[in-house]
C-alpha cells in the first residue's frame, strides 16, 4: 500500500463518518484555496486531518521539495535558492520582551515558499551575505500555516541555513525572470523585467492602523510595448540610484500581480529587491524653462526642455529656481534624475545662463494635433470647441474621482483634453471659444484607439485671447 493511501486509511479509521470520496473532494478544494503549485495531495491531507483534530504521524523523509510542504511538518531539510530577503525587524511580545523576525522567499524547480527567521537566526552572518539566486540548504526547520493558509518554513533555535557551492538542477534567477508582457493576475513570488515608462516617485501615507507608511511608484513597459503600474510598499527613493536614464532596464525580485483600478498591477513589499540601471552620481542639466506652477505647499513644478527637445519635469522643493522666469536658460545640479523627472532640494544649485538659441522656445516646441502620438509628451495651442464638462468616475475600490474634459482643435485636427483630480480644476476654468496654450500634456490611446491628451501635475493652461 502507498504512503498516501495508508494516510487516508488512518484518517478514515479515526473519522468513520467520512468516505474516501469526501476526502478526495476536500483535498481538491484545499488545493484550489491555497493555489496551484503550492500543495501536494499528501500535504492537503495533513491540513484536512488537522481541521478534524486528527494528527497523522507518518514519518516524513528528511530531504523534500517545496511542493511537499504541509503545516505541522517538523525537522525538515531541503535544498533551495534565495529569491529575496527582507530587513530584520524588531517586535515586542505580550510580556514586553523583544524578538527579531526576518522573512525570505525561496524557490526550487516547481514552487516557491516563504521562510521566517526568528530571533538570533534573523541576524546570522550567513543570512546578511545572501544574494538572490544563492543556493542554500535549510536544516531541521518546522512548517506552520500562514495567514492565507499556505505552508511557511520557520527557522528557529534548533534550525540552521547553510550555503551550497555545488551545481543544482534548480534554475537560476535569470532563467525564472519573466517579462512584464508575460504576467497574469494572481501570480506571486515573481522575478520580472521591463523598462521604465515615465516618472518614478515616492509617496507617504497613513495606513489603516494609523501608522505612517511609504511606497515607491513607477510604470514598467514590456516587450509588447504595453506598460503596467508598479507599487512597491515599504520602499522609498533610497532603494534606487540617484541617476536613472529614460527607458532604463529594471528587474524586480519578489513581486505579485493583482487587479487594480486601471487593469493589472505589480505589487511588491519591503523584501522586494530592485535592480535598476543607473548611477549614484548626477550630472548638471542645462534647460530652458517653459512653464512654472506653484503648488499649495509652495513647491514649484517646472516644465523645461534641453537642446535635444527632451522635456523635463522639475520638482523644486526648496525654491532654488526663484531667480528664474519662463523662457530663461538655467543650469542646475539636481539631487535626483529619474528619466525626465528632476528633483531639486537643499543639495542642488541653480544658475541662470545667457540665452542659447540651440534650446527651443515654447513656440518652437508646439505640436500640431494631427502629429500627436500615443505615449508622447506635448505642448499644443488650440481653440476650445465644447464647454468643459466635469463628472465623477467610480473606481473598482469605490473611490469617486473627478474627471474634466474639453474638446479642442487647431488647423490640423481635433482632440479631447482631459484632467483627473486636481487637474480637473484647471480645465474647469476654461471656457468655450478661448484660444489656449497647454504645456506638459501626455498622450494616451483611449477607446477604439483614439488618442487623447491628459494634463499632468506639470501642465499649465495659458489663455491667449
Helix percent reads: 10-25%
Structural class: mainly beta
Strand order of the largest sheet: 13-21-22-19-18-17-20-23
Q: In CATH, what is the class of the largest domain?
A: Mainly Beta
Tally of distinct domains: 5
Number of helices: 7
Q: What would you say the CATH architecture of the largest domain is?
A: Beta Barrel
Overall mean pLDDT score? 87
Query: Roughly what fraction of the amino acids lie in strands?
Result: 35-45%
Shape: elongated
Q: Look up the CATH topology of the largest domain.
A: OB fold (Dihydrolipoamide Acetyltransferase, E2P)
Please characterize this protein's 3D structure.
- The protein folds into five domains: 1-59, no CATH class; 68-171, OB fold (Dihydrolipoamide Acetyltransferase, E2P) (Beta Barrel); 178-276, OB fold (Dihydrolipoamide Acetyltransferase, E2P) (Beta Barrel); 285-353, OB fold (Dihydrolipoamide Acetyltransferase, E2P); 366-463, Beta Barrel (OB fold (Dihydrolipoamide Acetyltransferase, E2P)), CATH 2.40.50.
- 12% of the residues lie in helices and 42% in strands.
- It has seven helices and 30 strands.
- It has helices at residues 3-14, 20-34, 41-51, 125-128, 173-176, 362-365, 422-428; strands spanning 76-85, 89-92, 98-107, 112-118, 135-145, 151-155, 160-163, 177-179, 190-196, 201-206, 212-221, 227-233, 243-244, 249-260, 263-268, 273-276, 285-294, 300-305, 311-316, 329-333, 336-338, 341-344, 349-353, 377-384, 389-394, 400-409, 414-420, 435-445, 451-454, 460-463.
- The strands form four sheets. It has an eight-stranded mixed β-sheet, with no helix packed on it. A five-stranded mixed β-barrel has the order 1-3-4-6-5.
- Helix 1 runs parallel beside helix 3 (41-51) and helix 2 packs across helix 3.
- The N and C termini lie far apart (90 Å).
Amino acid at each position: 500500500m502507498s504512503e498516501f493511501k495508508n494516510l487516508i486509511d488512518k484518517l478514515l479509521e479515526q473519522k468513520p463518518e467520512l468516505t474516501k470520496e469526501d476526502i478526495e473532494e476536500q483535498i481538491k478544494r484545499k488545493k484550489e484555496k491555497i493555489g496551484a503549485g503550492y500543495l501536494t495531495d499528501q500535504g492537503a491531507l495533513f491540513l484536512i486531518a488537522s481541521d478534524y483534530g486528527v494528527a497523522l504521524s507518518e514519518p516524513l523523509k528528511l530531504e523534500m521539495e517545496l511542493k511537499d510542504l504541509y503545516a505541522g511538518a517538523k525537522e525538515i531539510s531541503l535544498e533551495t535558492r534565495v529569491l529575496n530577503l527582507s530587513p530584520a525587524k524588531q517586535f515586542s511580545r505580550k510580556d514586553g520582551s523583544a524578538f527579531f523576525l526576518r522573512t525570505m522567499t525561496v524557490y526550487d524547480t516547481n514552487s516557491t515558499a516563504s521562510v521566517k527567521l526568528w530571533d538570533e537566526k534573523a541576524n546570522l552572518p550567513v543570512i546578511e551575505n545572501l544574494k538572490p539566486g544563492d543556493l542554500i540548504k535549510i536544516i531541521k526547520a518546522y512548517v506552520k500555516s500562514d495567514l492565507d493558509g499556505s505552508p511557511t518554513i520557520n527557522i528557529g533555535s534548533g534550525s540552521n541555513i547553510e550555503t551550497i557551492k555545488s551545481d543544482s538542477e534548480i534554475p537560476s534567477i535569470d532563467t525564472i525572470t519573466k517579462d512584464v508582457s508575460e504576467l497574469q493576475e494572481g501570480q506571486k513570488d515573481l522575478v520580472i523585467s521591463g523598462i521604465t515608462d515615465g516618472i518614478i516617485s515616492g509617496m507617504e501615507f497613513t495606513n489603516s492602523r494609523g501608522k505612517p507608511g511609504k511606497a515607491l511608484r513607477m510604470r514598467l513597459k514590456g516587450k509588447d510595448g504595453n506598460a503596467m503600474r508598479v507599487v512597491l510598499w515599504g520602499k522609498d527613493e533610497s532603494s534606487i540610484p540617484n541617476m536613472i536614464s529614460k527607458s532604463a532596464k529594471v528587474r524586480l525580485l519578489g513581486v505579485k500581480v493583482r487587479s487594480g483600478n486601471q487593469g493589472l498591477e505589480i505589487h511588491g513589499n519591503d523584501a522586494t529587491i530592485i535592480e535598476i540601471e543607473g548611477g549614484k552620481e548626477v550630472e548638471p542639466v542645462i534647460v530652458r524653462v517653459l512653464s512654472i506652477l506653484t503648488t499649495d505647499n509652495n513647491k514649484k513644478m517646472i516644465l523645461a526642455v534641453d537642446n535635444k527637445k527632451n522635456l523635463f519635469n522639475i520638482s523644486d522643493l526648496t525654491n532654488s529656481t526663484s531667480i528664474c522666469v519662463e523662457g530663461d536658460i538655467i543650469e542646475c545640479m539636481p539631487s535626483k534624475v529619474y528619466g525626465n523627472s528632476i528633483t531639486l532640494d537643499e543639495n542642488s544649485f541653480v544658475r541662470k545662463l545667457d540665452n542659447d538659441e540651440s534650446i527651443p522656445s515654447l513656440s518652437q516646441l508646439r505640436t500640431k494635433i494631427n502629429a500627436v502620438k500615443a505615449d508622447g509628451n506635448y505642448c499644443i495651442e488650440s481653440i476650445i470647441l465644447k464647454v468643459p464638462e466635469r463628472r465623477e468616475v467610480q473606481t473598482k475600490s469605490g473611490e469617486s474621482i473627478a474627471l474634466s474634459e474639453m474638446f479642442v482643435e487647431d488647423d490640423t485636427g481635433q482632440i479631447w483634453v482631459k484632467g483627473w483630480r486636481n487637474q480637473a480644476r484647471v480645465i474647469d476654468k476654461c471656457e468655450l471659444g478661448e484660444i489656449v496654450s497647454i504645456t506638459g500634456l501626455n498622450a494616451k490611446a483611449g477607446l477604439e484607439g483614439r488618442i487623447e491628451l491628459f494634463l499632468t501635475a506639470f501642465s499649465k493652461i495659458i489663455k491667449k485671447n
